[in-house]
Design goal:
492 residues; mainly alpha; rod-shaped; Putative 56 kDa salivary secreted protein; signal
Length: 492
Amino acid sequence: MKTAVILLVLFSSFGNIGSKRGITQHAKLLSVSKGVTNCKCNIAANADNILQNLESLRTSVQELEKVESLEYSHTAECLRAPIKDVVDVGSTIFISLKKISQSSSDNVEVLARNVQVSIQQVKLTENEHVEKLQQVRGTLGDTNFKIVENIHSEFMEKLDEISIENNNLVSSNRVSNNKAMLNINQILKNYGTKLEESIPGLEPVLNSVVSADRSITRIRNAFSKQRLSLRSNLLRVRPYIESNVITNMQRNFKEVDNKITDKGETVVAQLNQFYEKISCECVKNTISIVQSISESVTDNVKLFVKQADKLVVRENYTQALMNESEELVVKLSKNLYETIIQGDMSESCLAKYQNELEKNSETVYSQSTECVWETVYDLKEAALNLNCAFRLALIDLKHEFKSVEKCVTLPTKDTSEMALFQAVECLEQAKLYLMQRRVYVEQMNAYQKMFRKEVSYSSSRYEFCLNSTSAQVGAQVKYLSDAITECGNVQS
């Protein structure tokens, strides 16, 4: 009878609680065995409201998990970890509380202990998550940092409140048990309202980090695509230089060498025949000089062949330019998105120019490859002209050998003593002429200087072309930066 009176009083007392806007608070208390109450509060409805809001937040958390750029992976992780606990652990706890309100007395203790374990687990990471949020405060800005911090701290505070009431759920005291259920119901109602108010402010913060990552990822993907095209294009450079420049020059050098060597051998053979007729020391000396001329030409040719083999276009400079340009554009995007993340500029401004940022890679590719191939064709043309310059040596060398040939062929036309005497004098003069060899030596020195200068000129033109491309990329970035900033100023 006493029990009935107590229940009647309690029922009458709780029945006077008035309705409020939103989810109403009410409790239907029934007497059950073992002193455990089955409180039919609207805990389930309040829990469902919270779970629905957390589920909408889960999408943003999942997007944070996809962040892959070096620039924002740390920021995303520092945001994801604490908010993920709010979503995942929060969902587990609120589902358990919902089940408690719907369960028989036998399951209450088990469910309540599960809730307590979940709360204890998330409390262990609280300080770590607070520290992670502090690490990205500068990126988020004070206003957005407070939004995220409040979401996390509000969740932790509600867990503390729930933990206290949750301990009372396993009490054998029916009154204490009922009160705990009602308090949990009120906690869930308050938290649900707070969560609904907070999520619209939190989601843009999380989404802006995802957008920043996507912007940078798109830029890097665009540059990666052009970098692959550049590498593919540059693979043709070395074979082209080898076949159209180096091989062409080396072939020309060897052709001159072969002609001089063959001519020298012919002259030496003629001198030997002449020596059989006239045993004169001047003949032996002339043979030695002719042979030394041929050897000198061969040595010079070997030197020039080696020099030609070293002709290159520094394709790696274009790769460096591509890398520098990429970092420049990424830096612009990152700086602008930090302004967006902090709420100082609309994302639409950067989105408007996103394609232009990505097209920067096309500028680098088209102009840098043009620089390379212009240089290659320059070298090809220079090689043709250098070949002509080198062949000028043939004129003098043929003349030098011809001066000897004229002497040794005199006795074949006239075998008189005077003709022999004339031939000896002719050879003596030819020998003295060959010993001086000024023209050929000067020609080789001039050619060596010309060769080096042409390579230097080509290198300078190539360097200018790349520097000009770099300057144009910088101008593009400056223009885009100004345009996006102006867009932000107009919107604000």
